Amino acid sequence: MSNATVTTPRRPGRIPVLHRILAVVVVVLVALVAALFTGIIVSTLGETMLASVCAGGGAFIATGGFGMAIATYLTPAASS
């Protein structure tokens, strides 16, 4: 028996793409939770349904925008 190690070939550039996809998914989920929380709080404070939806939408856009900016800065660039 030989002690030869078997190595699997790696595809260059594959891992950063997966990190970017994961970062986008996480940002969208966090933005959805922030929007839901904001909508519920505004509705609980006695505002109209339209105000609650607008506040939730604004929270989604703001959280998603800031999250995407941070994710773009933190995730490594994909090599071509």
The stretches of 5 or more residues where confidence is low (pLDDT under 50) are: none
- Which geometry do the CA atoms define? elongated
| Residues in helix, % | over 70%
- How would you characterize the largest beta sheet? none
- Terminal Cα span: 41 Å
Mean residue pLDDT: 86
What's the total count of β strands? 0
- What is the strand content? under 5%
H/E topology pattern: HH
Rg on CA atoms, Å: 21 Å
**Helix segment tally:** 2
Structural class comes to: mainly alpha
Could you characterize the architecture of this molecule?
The protein is mostly helical and 80 residues long. The chain contains 2 helices and no strands. The model has no long low-confidence stretch (mean pLDDT 86). The longest helix has 31 residues, at 14-44.
Descriptive keywords:
mainly alpha, elongated, single chain, 80 residues
Quick structural gist:
The chain has helices at 14-44, 49-74. By secondary structure, the protein is mostly helical.
Describe the secondary-structure layout.
Blueprint: H1 14-44, H2 49-74
Helix pairs in contact: 1-2
